[in-house]
Amino acid sequence: MKWLEQEKKKLTGLSRKAKLEYVWQYYKLWLIGGAALILFGIYFGFHLVNANRDTHLYVGFVNTYADVGNDSDFWKNYVEYSQTDIDEENVIFDKEMYFDMTQGDVRGNHYYEKLVVLIDSKTLDAVVTETENLRSLGANGRLLDLNNERADRFMEKYEDRIITAAVDQEDGTTREVPIGIDISDSILMTEEDAYVGGCAIGISSHAEHLDAVLEFLDYILQE
Q1: Which architecture does CATH list for 56-220?
Q2: Whole-angstrom Cα distance, residue 129 to residue 109?
Q3: Do residues 97 and 63 lie in contact, with contact meaning Cβ atoms separated by under 8 Å?
Q4: Strand stretches in the chain, DSSP E
Q5: What is the pTM of this model?
Q6: Distance of CA 1 to CAs 5, 8, 11, 31, Å?
Q7: Which of 26, 44, 174, 203 is close enough to 166 for a disulfide, judged by CB 3.0 to 4.6 Å?
Q8: Rounded distance, CA 177 to CA 174, Å?
Q9: Domain ranges of the chain
Q10: More confident position, 35 or 151
Q11: Over the stretch 124-134, which tens digit does the pLDDT of each residue have?
């Protein structure tokens, strides 16, 4: 309690901005750690609730306020299109993610940390966001290199839609790597108004449901 009173005195008289800067400077590790614990709790809670079902497809939508999440018409139409029995398999459209990697370091943003957990745990299959945001995400190596043999079908079918990112190499140089597919003319734009100016989809580096990702692309591109 004495420590808490001392901290309150330090904050007295400071502007709101100064208070936030003080809290971030001295307690950012605690804040980041707390956010990580919450994210892990969400992750394990999700798996506990859905442990009896396999996942057909898990797509993350970053920076959209459009109604494209679970139980939306967009979601229901995909479930019908894919003929997925949701009593047996999960279809997850997760739109609770907001971060912009083009504006600088996003470490500590709990939405970004959530995405990292989902990718590294082999839970997320694909991510949709603005094109430049996806390029920045692809540059950190968490999206599948579409030159990989696992992605042959994507390269063959969507060669004219491929976007690349400058990925750092071990020798200090950078190399343009195909990491995404432009979907700016998809129903996400033309019907759902999910993004302004364009969007793209990237495949998680550990995606386990590539057939479903291809099927999802067919759905949003109306093929």
Answers
A1: 3-Layer(aba) Sandwich (3.40)
A2: 16
A3: yes
A4: 54-62, 89-97, 126-129, 162-168, 174-182, 200-203
A5: 0.76
A6: 6, 11, 16, 20
A7: 174
A8: 9
A9: 1-52, 56-220
A10: 151
A11: 999 999 999 99
The tokens of 76 are what? 């229901």
Cα-to-chain-centroid distance, residue 162: 19
Q: How many Cβ atoms from other residues are within 10 Å of residue 201's Cβ?
A: 27
Q: What is the DSSP letter of 143?
A: B
The three-state secondary structure class of 63 is coil
* Residues linked to residue 59 through DSSP beta bridges, in sequence order: 93, 126
Q: What is the pLDDT of residues 17-51, one digit of tens each?
A: 655 665 556 556 555 666 666 666 665 555 555 54
Residue 48: CA count within 13 A, CB half-sphere: 6
- Residue 29 CB neighbour total at 10 angstroms: 9
User: How high does pLDDT run on average in the chain?
Assistant: 86
In the structure, what pLDDT confidence band is assigned to residue 104 with cuts at 50, 70 and 90?
confident
The tokens describing 80, both together, are: 């019908």
pLDDT tens string 61-93:
999 999 999 999 999 999 999 999 999 999 999
Handedness of CA 148, 153, 156, 162 (dihedral sign): negative
